[in-house]
TrEMBL record:
<feature type="transmembrane region" description="Helical">
    <location>
        <begin position="7"/>
        <end position="24"/>
    </location>
</feature>
<dbReference type="Pfam" id="PF00990">
    <property type="entry name" value="GGDEF"/>
</dbReference>
<keyword id="KW-1133">Transmembrane helix</keyword>
<feature type="transmembrane region" description="Helical">
    <location>
        <begin position="119"/>
        <end position="143"/>
    </location>
</feature>
<feature type="domain" description="GGDEF">
    <location>
        <begin position="576"/>
        <end position="713"/>
    </location>
</feature>
<dbReference type="Pfam" id="PF00563">
    <property type="entry name" value="EAL"/>
</dbReference>
<feature type="transmembrane region" description="Helical">
    <location>
        <begin position="55"/>
        <end position="73"/>
    </location>
</feature>
<feature type="transmembrane region" description="Helical">
    <location>
        <begin position="85"/>
        <end position="107"/>
    </location>
</feature>
<feature type="domain" description="EAL">
    <location>
        <begin position="722"/>
        <end position="977"/>
    </location>
</feature>
<dbReference type="InterPro" id="IPR035919">
    <property type="entry name" value="EAL_sf"/>
</dbReference>
<feature type="transmembrane region" description="Helical">
    <location>
        <begin position="277"/>
        <end position="298"/>
    </location>
</feature>
<feature type="transmembrane region" description="Helical">
    <location>
        <begin position="179"/>
        <end position="200"/>
    </location>
</feature>
<feature type="transmembrane region" description="Helical">
    <location>
        <begin position="212"/>
        <end position="230"/>
    </location>
</feature>
<dbReference type="InterPro" id="IPR029787">
    <property type="entry name" value="Nucleotide_cyclase"/>
</dbReference>
<feature type="transmembrane region" description="Helical">
    <location>
        <begin position="251"/>
        <end position="271"/>
    </location>
</feature>
<keyword id="KW-0472">Membrane</keyword>
<dbReference type="InterPro" id="IPR035965">
    <property type="entry name" value="PAS-like_dom_sf"/>
</dbReference>
């Protein structure tokens, strides 16, 4: 369809250019035809995608420059033949000649053995045509008035015509004939005819600018543009078929002979008035051409001898293969013939031992599993020798494969010659076996046809009477193909046939046919029908399961990825945006834990239904699809959006849609969704696009529930930095690069140290000292907090086991921070008790600190472990109390010993009376519950006095001491210490 429409439009535009010329608009006509033909070549290259793309582009450039040269020349002031600045046009024409020659030579086929022939023929053509044009046109044209550089330019134009003729003849005689090659030859011929007539007119003093000869010039453009638009323009990409040189050398040899005799004819002719100095030149050129012609005859003789030798080898091989009675005889005959062709070592493998592989450069492979099970024949040897005679070797391998097939068929005929054996086999076969003539009239149908067709098949019916209309043509074509195939070769139908029985049952049949008309016992075509209905149903079901999520009905990740890649290419070509929305249900785990997985599955089904409705409601021109990526993750793909604002609005609607309550069994379930958005502006392929959307989702989840974020490059950089930090932290834990510091906890009344809180520190090799807030989050996300926490416990307990009071106070206790992931990890309590025993540390001197937010988030998951810790004698403290805005009533539910007030309370006690009343109330409640209160973050004396006045007996902060290394702690506890 594209070819017909494009050719019609092209013809109309070219006709418009010719009409412009006819009405006197010469320059406009050339411009229209030149631009149209150039555009036609470029569009054809884009549509047909030829492998010799650069050659066609060179021809397109030569068309454009030819047009440009003509327009520039017409635009120059002055009369034709007397215009200034003509050298600009000469340069354009020289560039055009180079591009045209490169394009034509690039489209021609070349082989290593043909090089000598091509060189000889090209030299003869150039010398002969050049001599003719030089005597008839070049010399008279050059000696015309205004010589000098003008004379050189005139000779150059004649030389250009010679090169164009040589390139055209080279292409025509080396390429396969096609409509495209014929048009490619016609265009340059028109150009040369125009140029010759124009130069002859110049010699006579007539410029012929408004004469019909310009049609030859316009034909140059029209023919080459048309040559690109026809589908056969791709025939230049096809391999040469490995044929011998000069498949039909008569045309080439005739041209060579004509041009070789031309100089002699010129010398003998009295019609040509030549200057005395020209005749010696003609004689010299004639001598050279004669010598080249002699070399060409020697080359032809060599080619003929080689061809005759190969034909003798092929004849002997045909006779030997016809006499072969088994695979061994076929192998021996093939090896002899292949060895003679290669004139070197060769290896031949026949039969089932040949693997189903793509043949290498040094292998000729025919048949095999990929060729309908045809007997395989492989011929291997030196790659260079193989490539020189690949065509004869391929023919030899084909004959050997045919011989093997003949032997196999003979054996099969012998095996099944017995009519009784054949009848028994057919009667009990599940496949339907029919004997039909070439018109598909049934002569016999096996009893198994009853199961498929629902009735016995009458012998007078045609096979096409049993099939649907769309299968009739394929049935007739199957018999035709079997009739032209090798004797006994099985030919398969193009597609499955569909049969509907009288009871409405539909069956799908796979059909094969053999031509056994030469077999005396059969004398017809044997049609085998296999019922593949169950197989096709299973294939469809497997395909559906592979691409569709059974729970939600949405596409799976695999199909989504395929569509993502395809859409990415299309939207970039259209100049519009494509986008991926990566969605994660925030609270599905809580729903599963609270209501059970059946309710969670129902939530997923509702979400899938909502996403299907959302994508189906997209406006026209916007391609969309939704998929379940896995678990509680979904993705929506949009293609065809125009602006970022449209995508932002779509993201808002998606978040609102998925945030609506879900009704399950009379219960209203709230399950918010977070969303990450990425567009094709951010990624080069589908993998990057999905990754970017996932990164944006990560940022949205960090911002809170029910949020969406647009991917920014900084997000990727931040994630990469976190991954780098995670790797470095893992290395730091493994190589014991972390350090512990200890901050004192004091009694506010006498400033005596009652305990130390162990704080982890890390000096990064490149970033220096990092605050815990910079790497604790990474440790939590990656799970490294488990190993890091165990390292902290082990080192802190080892160091604290040696603490002793200085005689004026009891031994201080050790406080260690514990994450929620450590507490919910199975075996944490037992691990801690084991380490206490290993280091000889009394349990009552150990306090486990856990943040208030972790206690409320994890709930019962950690409260049971906290109870076990307290039963083991280990005290439990809630850290940062007050930051989570929890009710004070939680203090009665959670198994605690110590409440650590957050610094946000302490820092405002001095200036806020309400805050002092609130802290006093917390302390009173804690005292009533027998809980110890420790005020954190005390940095000034007024703050210390305020918390003391509020009833708090213990404190911690920079006022009493910053985190200290272990040796400073040891000095702090010495008998000489002032504490």
């Amino acid at each position: 369809m594209w070819g017909r429409w494009s050719m019609a439009v092209y013809a109309c535009l070219c006709l418009a250019g010719v009409l412009l010329y006819a009405v006197g608009q010469l320059t406009s006509g050339v411009a229209v035809v030149g631009v149209t033909s150039t555009a036609a070549v470029l569009l054809a290259v884009r549509h047909y995608q030829p492998r010799r793309r650069n050659s066609w582009l060179a021809l397109a450039a030569s068309l454009f420059l030819t047009m440009l040269g003509r327009i520039v020349y017409d635009a120059l002031p002055g009369q034709y033949g007397q215009k200034p600045l003509t050298w600009i046009v000469w340069l354009i024409h020289l560039t055009t000649l180079v591009l045209f020659t490169a394009g034509m030579v690039g489209l021609a086929r070349h082989t290593r053995e043909r090089t000598v022939t091509l060189v000889l023929d090209t030299a003869i053509v150039v010398l002969g045509a050049g001599l003719l044009f030089g005597i008839l046109i070049g010399v008279p044209y050059a000696i015309a008035p205004a010589g000098g550089i003008w004379a050189a330019a005139r000779i150059g134009y004649v030389a250009r015509d010679v090169v164009v003729i040589a390139a055209t003849i080279h292409l025509v005689t080396s390429a396969r004939w096609s409509v495209s090659s014929a048009l490619l030859a016609t265009g340059p011929v028109g150009l040369v005819v125009y140029d010759v007539l124009y130069r002859l007119g110049r010699v006579r003093g007539d410029f012929l600018q408004q004469s019909p000869i310009l049609l030859g010039f316009l034909g140059f453009f029209v023919a080459i543009g048309a040559a690109a638009l026809v589908p056969s323009m791709r025939s230049f990409d096809e391999p040469d078929g490995e044929q011998d040189l000069d498949r039909d050398p008569r045309l080439r040899l005739g041209l060579v002979a004509l041009l070789a005799l031309l100089p002699s004819a010129l010398l003998l002719s009295s019609a040509v008035d030549m200057a005395p100095w020209v005749r010696p030149l003609v004689t010299a050129v004639s001598t050279v051409i004669l010598g080249l012609a002699l070399f060409r005859l020697v080359d032809v003789s060599y080619q003929l001898r080689r061809r005759v030798a190969r034909e003798r080898i092929a004849g002997r091989a045909t006779a030997d293969l016809a006499d072969a009675r088994d695979s061994g005889g076929v192998t021996a005959a093939t090896e002899r013939a292949a060895g003679d062709l290669l004139a070197g070592p060769v290896q031949v493998t026949v039969g089932g031992d040949v693997p189903d592989v793509q043949p290498a450069a040094g292998v000729v492979l025919v048949g095999g599993p990929t060729d309908d099970g045809r007997p395989a024949v492989s011929i291997s040897g030196d790659p260079q020798r193989i490539n020189r005679v690949r065509a004869p070797l391929a023919s030899l391998a084909q004959q050997a494969s045919d011989a093997l097939e003949r032997i196999r068929l003979n054996q099969s005929v012998i095996k099944y010659a017995s009519e009784s054996y054949f009848r028994t086999l057919v009667q009990n076969a599940t496949d339907v076996i029919m004997i039909v003539d070439q018109s598909t009239v049934i002569r016999y149908a096996s009893p198994s046809s009853l199961a498929i067709f629902g009735a016995h098949v009458a012998p007078s019916l045609r096979v096409t009477d049993l099939l649907g209309p769309k299968d009739e043509a394929d049935a007739l074509a199957l018999c035709d193909r079997a009739a032209t195939a090798a004797p006994g070769e099985e030919v398969r139908a193009q597609h499955d046939w569909t049969v509907r029985a009288p009871d409405g049952q539909v069956s799908h049949l796979s059909a094969t046919c053999r031509d056994l008309r030469e077999e005396p016992s059969i004398g017809a075509f044997v049609l085998t029908l296999r019922n593949v209905t169950a197989q096709r149903t299973l294939e469809r079901e497997l395909t559906r399961q592979a691409y569709v999520d059974p729970l939600t009905g949405l596409s799976r990740r695999e199909y989504f990825s395929e569509r993502l890649e395809s859409l990415g290419r299309h939207v970039r070509e259209d100049g519009k945006l494509g986008a991926v929305f990566f969605i994660d249900l925030d609270d599905l785990k809580l729903v599963n834990d609270s209501y059970g997985h059946n309710v969670g599955d129902e939530v997923l089904r509702v979400v899938g239904h909502r996403l299907q409705g959302f994508t189906s409601g997209m406006p026209d021109g916007v391609e969309s699809m939704a998929a379940r990526i896995g678990g509680d993750e979904f993705a929506v793909l949009l293609g065809g959006a125009s602006t970022e604002a449209e995508l932002a609005g779509t993201a808002d609607r998606l978040v609102q849609l998925l945030g609506q309550p879900v009704q399950v069994g009379g219960q209203e379930i709230l399950c918010a969704a977070s969303l990450g958005l990425a567009t094709t502006d951010d990624a080069s392929d589908g993998v990057e696009l999905l990754r970017d959307a996932d990164i944006a989702l990560y940022a949205a989840k960090n911002a809170g529930k029910g949020q969406w974020r647009r991917f920014r490059r900084s997000m990727h950089d931040s994630l990469a930095a976190r991954m780098e930090l995670r790797t470095a932290l893992d290395r730091a834990i493994r190589h014991d690069e972390l350090r512990l510091a200890y901050q004192p906890i004091v009694g506010l009344s006498d400033r005596s140290v009652v305990g130390y809180e162990a704080l982890v520190r890390w000096r990064h090799p490149r970033r220096g000292a990092l605050r815990p807030a910079q790497f604790i989050g990474v440790a939590e996300e990656s799970g490294l907090v488990l190993r890091m926490g165990e390292w902290v416990l082990d080192n802190a307990l080892r160091f604290a086991s040696g603490w002793r009071g200085n005689g004026r106070r009891p031994d201080p206790y050790l406080a260690v921070n514990v994450s929620g992931r450590q507490l919910v990890n199975t075996g944490f309590v037992d691990m801690l008790r084991g380490k206490l025993a290993d280091h000889g540390m009394p349990a009552e001197r150990v306090v486990m600190e856990i943040t208030e937010s972790t206690l409320l988030r994890e709930g019962n998951a950690v409260w049971n472990d906290l109870s076990r810790l307290r039963r083991a004698g280990i005290r439990v403290a809630v850290d940062d109390f007050g930051t989570g805005y929890s009710a004070l009533s939680h203090l009665t539910d959670i198994p605690l010993d110590i409440v650590k007030l957050d610094r946000s309370f302490v820092s405002s006690l001095v200036t806020s009376a309400k805050q002092r009343q609130l802290v006093r109330g917390i302390v009173d409640i804690a005292d009533g519950l027998d809980l110890t209160v420790v005020a954190e973050g005390i940095e000034t004396e007024p703050e210390s006095a305020a918390v003391t006045e509020a009833g708090c007996r213990f404190g911690q902060g920079y006022l009493f001491g910053r985190p200290m290394p272990p040796d400073a702690v040891a000095a702090d506890m010495s008998p000489n210490s002032r504490r």
